[in-house]
Amino acid sequence: MNIILLGPPGAGKGTLANKIIEKKDAVQIATGDIFRYNISNKTELGVKAKSYMDRGDLVPDELTIDLVWDAFDKHKDESKEGKIILFDGFPRNLDQAKALDQGMEERDQKIDHVVYFDVAEEVLIERIAGRRVCTNCGATYHVKNNPPTKEGICDRCGEELIQRDDDKEETVKNRIDVYKEHTAVLIDYFKEKGILFSIDGTNSPDKVFEEFLNKLGE
Ligand code: AP5
User: In whole angstroms, how far apart are CA 87 and each of 154, 163, 173?
Assistant: First the structure.
């Protein structure tokens, strides 16, 4: 089963992905995490992506689309057998959405659901300011709303938690503007295909997960 998590920065896509992976047979393809991994390992892709990410702009499609297929193709057979593949942070504009449709068709697959996170802008800013992420496995926490059991340490793998470079206030503002300009159009794109459902992303992470399961019919 292939599911897109769609929503603005800080809406809770990564947090819901963590919960789904904990409780169900699922994997996540998170383009932001893939770029961050490449940046910290100073790969050619990481060097190219860094300046865009530091500004809060989208990394160009030619650096993004192929890496999604590389990741997806590792799981495409499991997806047919019912494993949940979560697209987190992709697609992020109309060209990426069309490339995803085309690639799915070539693989005789489809996107089953798009989960849209409805969250007000003030909430996004507060969440991003308090976000901490694991340097090793990418798990996400919030200093107040979703703290780890031991301060500064990841519950999942025991590594150190840090604040992301692009979580500075000016960059966050640009990321939200970029979302409005390029990504929000995908809400109607997927609504017209009849595969989008909204969830109230202002609820607690447990409630968001519960609503996700309900909407999925489970
Ligand atoms: P990416 O890493 O994808 O970031 P994003 O989409 O901006 O989303 P975030 O990770 O900020 O938020 P989230 O919705 O996952 O929220 P989270 O669960 O962490 O992209 C980063 C950059 O990479 C982009 O700017 C771009 O440059 C590049 N990029 C990535 N994909 C690309 C693509 N396809 N094309 C081109 N460029 C691309 O939650 C946020 C905080 O809130 C956390 O602290 C969390 O604990 C807390 N929280 C979450 N849910 C709740 C809740 N229900 N209640 C209370 N607190 C909550």
Answer: 23, 23, 23
Q: Which two tokens stand for residue 208?
A: 């968001």
The whole-number average pLDDT for the span 139-152 is 92
Residue 81 confidence (pLDDT)? 87
How is the chain split into domains, by residue range? 2-202
What are the binding residues for ATP?
Answer: 10-15, 131, 140-141, 203
The whole-model pTM stands at 0.93
Q: Point out which residues pair with 199 in neighbouring strands.
A: 117
Residue of 4, 6, 13, 126 best suited for mutating to test ligand 1, as the one with most atoms within 8 Å of CB: 13
Which residues have CB under 6 Å of ligand 1? Answer: 7, 9-15, 31-32, 35, 52-53, 56-59, 64, 89-90, 92, 96, 127-128, 130-131, 140-142, 145-146, 166, 175, 201, 203-205, 208
Residue-wise pLDDT for 50-89, tens only, equals 999 999 999 999 999 999 999 999 998 888 888 999 999 9
